Amino acid sequence: MKKWQKHERDTAKEFKGKRQRGSGNRWYNPLDIKTSEFLIENNSTTRKSFSITQKLWDKIYQTALRENRIGLLNIRFLNSNTDLIVMDKNDLTYSRD
Question: What average pLDDT does the segment 8-22 reach?
């Protein structure tokens, strides 16, 4: 199993979701993992940094909005086994109300 596949499998299990067929590369199965509350895009890197572009974030946010879900970006730093979750601040405050 490739590292990105393990990352997707782990994330789906942790969030009690399902991996999207084709790893989210189809318009009818967007992003990588779908739960009842979230749409999650997974990325992993062996580097010490990861850049988030506005284009990437807009894709995650807009896709999740169309699906009536909260968009998350899950970044795994493979060399340190560190996982980070990125989400819109407004979604965080909304989910805490």
Answer: 81
